[in-house]
Design goal:
Elements lengths: L1 H19 L2 E11 L7 E12 L2 E10 L6 E14 L3 E8 L21 E10 L2 E7 L6 E10 L2 E10 L6 E12 L2 E9 L5 E12 L2 E11 L29 E11 L2 E12 L4 E15 L2 E10 L5 E9 L1
Antiparallel strand pairs: 1-2, 1-18, 2-3, 3-4, 4-5, 5-6, 6-7, 7-8, 8-9, 9-10, 10-11, 11-12, 12-13, 13-14, 14-15, 15-16, 16-17, 17-18
């Protein structure tokens, strides 16, 4: 009995010491679909993470706010990083990656569906460039190289991807350029997916008025642009106009919007004029965002999309961070 008690105490001490030397964190995000006040649905997701030196592990615990679906647990990220002789950092495992505009590889900060990849990458800084080369999945031949840096006020990001799975020999690439001069900022993003379909985006913004930013942009889809490694074209459910319910092949979206921020409150409104020359169609869409930082660890949000007579989409969000 004493021996068993001793073993339990040693195990508890070891566990307590491990926890003490780790950095813990937790984030809960709740989405409520408020489009129909008589039939609301919602989901809640809690992410618990821990870091021990170069080891990072996080899990998602998600459940529906209605019905009896129960709680689902899944591994979000689990990776290990190590320094390689001072030249760079090698990371292996499941990661949530985002590069450039996010049109080809991106995380999903808004929606409930995660976008992660299992593989490895090597990162190093070289001549003012931050370079990352990696494989998306060790069981496939999907590889990528991303290079980013700032030069004389210009921000540059280049992402090259290759898929040689089963002799596919497919290529994808993204080029992003941004430049800021005083209160003005301009950016351009040019992307091509595995099938050669393209998405281009140009934008400009002005922030010369206190707490106010005005933005104009144009986004064009040539072909059915889309990447499974990105949340870019998955529609309103992920907080954007791409994909279902939003932009499709041949669409050209010209947007004008303003964002106002003051004392923890942020308000944004954007009007989209979407045309398709091939289909001979024109339509209007609007998006409205309202955010409020309740305190240091709680943010409230409201997002609403209206698509020219189609059913409106309204999301209420609550984010709590530990």
């Amino acid at each position: 009995m004493k021996k068993n008690l001793r073993n339990v105490l040693v195990l508890a001490l070891g566990l307590t010491t491990t926890i003490a030397f780790s950095q813990m964190g937790a984030v809960n995000k709740t989405w409520i679909d408020n489009s129909n006040s008589e039939d609301r649905t919602g989901n809640s997701r809690t992410t618990v993470s821990a870091d021990w030196g170069g080891i990072h592990v996080s899990t998602d615990w998600s459940y529906a706010l209605s019905g009896d679906a129960g709680v689902n647990m899944s591994v979000y990220e689990a990776y290990a990083s190590t320094d390689v002789m001072g030249f760079g950092t090698l990371t292996m495992g499941q990661q949530d990656l985002s590069y450039g505009s996010g049109a080809l590889i991106s995380s999903n900060s808004f929606g409930t569906q995660r976008y992660t990849t299992q593989g490895l990458n090597f990162n190093l800084a070289l001549a003012g460039l931050d370079i990352t080369a990696g494989m998306m999945d060790l069981n496939t031949n999907v590889s990528y190289v991303n290079a980013s840096g700032s030069f004389a006020g210009a921000d540059v990001n280049i992402l090259m991807m290759s898929d040689d799975t089963d002799g596919a020999n497919a290529k994808a690439h993204g080029y992003d350029l941004g430049y800021t001069m005083g209160d003005f900022a301009v950016s351009a993003s040019m992307n091509s997916d595995w099938d050669g379909d393209e998405m281009t985006m140009y934008s400009g913004s002005y922030s010369g008025v206190s707490n106010l930013v005005a933005t104009v942009s144009q986004t064009e889809y040539k072909g059915d642009f889309g990447m499974a490694t990105s949340a870019w074209n998955t529609g309103y459910a992920n907080g954007n106009l791409g994909g279902p319910g939003g932009l499709v092949a041949g669409d050209k979206n010209t947007s004008m919007g303003i964002t106002y921020s003051l004392s923890g409150i942020s308000l944004g409104y954007t009007r989209h004029s979407i045309s398709n020359d091939a289909a001979g169609t024109e339509r209007e869409s609007t998006s409205l965002m309202l955010g409020y930082s309740l305190n240091d660890n709680c943010d409230l949000g409201m997002y609403r999309w209206s698509n020219d007579g189609a059913e409106d989409v309204t999301w209420l969000t609550v984010t709590i961070t530990m």
